[in-house]
Amino acid sequence: MSAELWFEKYATSIYKYILLILKDPQLAEDLTQETFVKAFIHEKQFKGDSEVKTWLYRIAYTTTMNHFRKKHPIPALFNLASPVKSVEVTLIEYEEVKEVYEAITKLKMTYQQVIILRKVQQFSIEETSAILGWTEGKVKMQLLRALKSLRKILSEKGVGHNGQITE
Q: Engineering a disulfide at 32: which of 15, 44, 110, 155 sits with its beta carbon 3.0 to 4.6 angstroms away?
């Protein structure tokens, strides 16, 4: 599969991933394009040791983190304008989801990343490990710590999580 096909297949999901971190649609679009330019340039270096999607998310992660190192040391995590999953979601559910997203933004960046990849993007431990460049053990430990910190923040705010925050 060529870089052009990768773009067609994965650009939207990569964009959404970056947008969750940046909360800036234009910048997310720019970094998505940068991600695929890098993938195109380094296409021949992809050896197939992982899924293409995992490799692309790793490039997106690195590109986004490099942007933060240069420009924004403390990012906002989510655009809370549309976290609802369907039209049927009630206002109460919306408020709970919003509270969870706001609480995630209070976590340190490594905790934010592992929660986004494992719980929002639904990557496996192995895929998350490849994207973040961590061992699988570190992914598991960081996720446990991140969820514990998240639960603490939510309980301090008096927010119930209706099973949304699970290991």
A: 15
In this structure, is residue 75 part of a structural domain? no
Quick check: 35 and 15 in contact, CB under 8 A? no
Residue pair 84/149 in contact by the 8 Å Cβ criterion: no
Q: Is residue 144 part of a domain?
A: yes
* Closest to 111 in 3D by CA, of 75, 159, 150: 150
Q: Could you write out the DSSP letters of every residue in 106-128?
A: TS-HHHHHHHIIIIIS---HHHH
Q: Which two tokens stand for residue 88?
A: 């049927």
CATH of the domain at 103: 1.10.10.10
Structure confidence by residue, pLDDT tens digits, 146-164: 999 988 988 887 765 444 4
Tens of pLDDT, residue by residue over 75-133, are 333 433 444 444 444 455 556 666 777 888 889 989 988 998 888 788 899 989 988 99
For residue 95, the enclosing domain spans 91-157
Q: Number of structural domains, the chain?
A: 2
Token pair listed for 60: 């997106």
